[in-house]
Amino acid sequence: MGSIHKELKARQRAERDSYPENLSLRVHRALSWLDRAEQDDDPDSRFIFLWIAFNAAYATEIDDRIHLNEQATFNGFLEKLCDLDTEKCIGELVWKAYPNAIRVLLDNPYVFSCFWGHQKGHLTEAQWKHSFDGAKKAAHSALAQQNTPVLLSIVFSRIYTLRNQIMHGGATWNGSVNRDQIRDCVAILANLVPVVIEVMMDNPGALWGEASYPVV
User: Fold this and answer.
1) For a 10 Å CB count at each end of the chain, is N or C smaller?
2) How many domains are contained in the chain?
């Protein structure tokens, strides 16, 4: 597992002097958390470390100041990455992952926010199921049209639900009831995060914005 991080780290060391400061900081931080994720066999820990790596790549100071919705922030980031990804590495990765981890994740109600809205009494069973079916149809439509950003935004809304559940203490470490979603989210992020970092390094001239919490 460590070879992906080592390969990207070697490239970062060779190129970092030519990076703008904000990109250099993002890549350095993201690679550090990818390295930590690759050292861990525990799926819960790997999920947390991979999410932090992704967060380190996309979060900006501007978003902090204007209190943008986090999902809107990373959806915009993913759309930008897909536009910059001339080699279509992200799209290829998504289409390969779709028959397995992504399709299974989209069929899992426990990472769908409206399901939990129903459990809290905010939505009826019919309402959450209607939203669930609509999201799956939107994902299938995006797949058919090879619309990578839209499909990724749907996938990441599910990953984000799991992120909230874990980070807010709403899950048990190594709990038997959330193994499927942890497995699938780790599989998706473990493949996607290195590609995200690579596309960023391929495009040092893009406007990535100031990183959150600059080194002072």
Assistant:
1) C
2) 1
